[in-house]
Amino acid sequence: QVQLVESGGGLVQPGGSLRLSCAASGIIFSINAMGWYRQAPGKERELVARITGGSSTNYADSVKGRFTISRDNAKNTVYLQMNSLKAEETAVYYCNANIESFKSAEYWGQGTQVTVSS
Q: Which residues of the chain have pLDDT under 70?
């Protein structure tokens, strides 16, 4: 029973900021990596940012310099700080994690809506 729960989505104006959180709960032995993906209307889901064991990070080219991914290992939580948001970044943002439980598996949250509009 591993579950990912996202929070922090909402409505912001272009140029604004938002911070997303994703907490993993359940029977967890370790978390190998966590990341954020997004899916805009009519488009495929795409990687936004990911953080691995050892705190190695990678970002989509479109968000480099504006978004920052971080994690709190004690809380099994990953964050995505999003600055200078653009209207085209309106999407459902999904948390993803590779978690060691009784088996290693990929898990997805149910998503949180981010709307960038004036």
A: none
